[in-house]
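Long-time lurker. I teach an intro course on protein structure, and each term I like to show students one example going from raw sequence to a predicted 3D structure in token notation. This year I'd like something fresh instead of my usual example. Would anyone be willing to generate the tokens for the chain below so I can use it in lecture? Attribution to the forum is fine with me.
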Amino acid sequence: MTESLHNSAPMPDLPKGLGASAPDLWLDMAEEERKTGCILDEETCVIKGVYFFLKGNLDIPFHGSKEFFTYTVWVSLNKEHFERIVSLWGNPLRSKEPPYFGWLATRLPSYPETINLQTQVYMNDIGMRPTVILEPNDHPLAIEQGEGMGLPRIEEIVTLLNSREGDL
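-- Reply from a regular --
Happy to contribute to a lecture. Here you go:
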């Protein structure tokens, strides 16, 4: 990251984040289909005992600020990692866990396809959502997470999202 990312200039009055209410797979399912073998709560989702999702925060640094734009996203994990995370949910030592590999399970507007981007999920202290870090690659979202984004890009995202209805 560049030096300018660590200055402390105040950001204009724009949203500092956006969130998805559920993984895209859940959102794409018919309501009737969700009634059997599917569970969605505030932080986790299980679909048919086959797909396991965890909600986390994917932070994008603002250029010239110590602030972040945060996408609250869903990540698909394998069953073993999902069960481990759930078993440690109330454990203060959970933040000491190594990161878990996952796949991004949320489409983010203003980017090319984001479903199945490779991630690492870091557990945080109790009361804090996990942190989602994209594996380094040439996808614009991964580049922005690594290098940050400026005010024009933030305004572009906010304008696009204000023109949409519904979930991310």
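Some talking points for your students: The CA atoms of residues 56 and 129 lie 5 Å apart. The chain is about 25% helix and 25% strand.
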